[in-house]
Design goal:
The protein contains no helices and 18 strands. With 191 residues, it is mainly beta. Strands 1, 3, 4, 7, 8 and 9 form a six-stranded mixed sheet that branches.
Length: 191
């Protein structure tokens, strides 16, 4: 069963409950993060155990309680449990280089800001591609949200390259949509 205070990345969770007395029916009261409340009849696996697979969980904090009814028509209620759905990848923005930059042979620092409001940022990678080859650099976390790596531009072919950031959080949410292009050109202009 999903434990109290758990953060999940999929919109479903198995809720199990065991009563200390025989129960004839158990109802799951689900309070979605948007304030909507729904009740579900739980499946019975024994006279004291019930389960329900909750689907359609909304992003953010969701709470639930289980109500049980025994043969004397006495209702009991569990303590309220909280489940948080976080399927939002980290937000990424480029600090340097800027898209469309031109480089020759120098070292270039790649710097991005990565934020995640619900989890910790786990890993940030920089994928540099030119259509036929790829270099992946592991970024280091210099301070709270800034991630850096350095590339020796002289090791890259003279052409346009795409730099894509791959950032994932501790829950496994990945952002791989942020990219810029830059050009490596070591050819002097004709005079």
């Amino acid at each position: 069963s999903v434990a109290n205070g758990t953060t999940i990345i999929v919109n479903s969770a198995l809720v199990n409950v065991t009563s200390d007395v025989n129960v004839s029916v158990a109802l799951l009261e689900w309070n979605y993060g948007n304030g909507t409340i729904q009740n579900f009849t739980m499946n019975q696996s024994s006279s004291t155990s019930f389960y329900y697979t909750m689907i359609g969980i909304t992003t953010g904090d969701n709470t639930y309680s289980v109500y049980g009814n025994d043969s004397a028509n006495t209702f009991g209620v569990s303590v309220t449990q909280t489940v948080t759905l976080d399927n939002t990848p980290p937000a990424v923005s480029f600090n340097s280089p800027s898209s469309g930059s031109n480089f020759t042979t120098e070292l270039q620092v790649i710097n991005v800001t990565v934020n995640d409001s619900n989890a910790y940022v786990d890993t940030v990678l920089f994928n540099i591609t030119n259509g036929s080859s790829s270099i992946i650099l592991t970024a280091s976390n210099l301070s709270a949200t800034f991630w850096n790596a350095t590339i020796d531009v002289s090791t890259l072919a003279q052409e346009v390259h795409t730099l894509t950031v791959l950032a994932n959080d501790t829950l496994g949410n990945v952002n791989s949509t942020e990219a810029i292009t830059f050009t490596v050109d070591r050819t002097a202009p004709p005079v």
